[in-house]
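Recall from the previous chapter that SMILES is a line notation for molecules. Here it describes adenosine-5'-triphosphate.
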Amino acid sequence: MKPIPAALTIAGTDPSGGAGIQADLKTFQELKAYGMSVITSVVAQNTTGVQNVQHMPVSMIKQQLESVISDIPFQAFKTGMLANITIMDAVAEKISRLDVPYIIDPVMVATSGDALISGDSRDYLRDKLLPLSALVTPNIPEAEVMTGKTIKSAEDIQQAAKQIVHEFGAGAALVKGGHMQGEAVDFLYDGKKMHPFSAERIDTKNTHGTGCTYSAAITAYMSHGYQLPEAVQKAKNFVTGAIRDSFSIGHGNGPTNQWTHRTERVN
Ligand SMILES: Nc1ncnc2c1ncn2[C@@H]1O[C@H](COP(=O)(O)OP(=O)(O)OP(=O)(O)O)[C@@H](O)[C@H]1O
Ligand SMILES: Cc1ncc(COP(=O)(O)O)c(N)n1
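With both inputs in hand, we obtain:
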């Protein structure tokens, strides 16, 4: 019998529902993957920014991972906010024995500009976690931190993607062009070939949670058995729709809309 597609996210929370674990689970649900979550940090945040953060004790993060891993098989998983080296270490220890695709969303700073991980853990993420991944999905500022190089053009993005794979050992790198001008073009480098993914730029300030939604969609499609680059193309279509129909709610950058049937559902 075919296994039920299941996906796990290991990340921080967003009580306002736009980013983090909440965005991931909504995306998994919409894309018909059974969603599971391990919480690393509880973040008091909303569309305007981050008000407070409390990290889970490391023993509790490990226990949550053990609870899921020992009981329910899943076909793909992602990490989002891993706030410090101790948390990264605990996660690395538990996941290194898993034999399913691992997608890293290397969350560093929220759309609001608030830092979500400690300064010293950025190198650690690159050196310790990237080699475990099937795919890492940095935006331009995150790719600049990883590579130590300024990224100003599509050519720079492609060079960064290559460096992240060849020098830092990620299985593949998807460097996102959301922070550039013009078309929203992302480049996936899988170690052999460069794949561009392009979409028209949507004029909106509602981009809270786009990175989370995108990486969760890739994870969901991979849990269904799609490989790169097809999983990325499908996820790109999904996130573009989610930005186009984003919600103008809250006082800051509103959230993306993960509903695949974007008409109102009342029953
Ligand atoms: N205004 C936009 N219109 C269309 N696509 C966009 C827009 N902004 C971002 N994207 C796309 O959304 C996806 C997420 O990219 P982005 O670079 O915004 O990631 P991120 O910075 O990690 O997310 P966040 O903004 O939530 O931190 C990418 O496919 C990117 O090209
Ligand atoms: C817990 C958590 N994880 C990730 C993000 C980044 O999301 P974004 O950059 O889209 O605000 C966030 N704001 N909160």
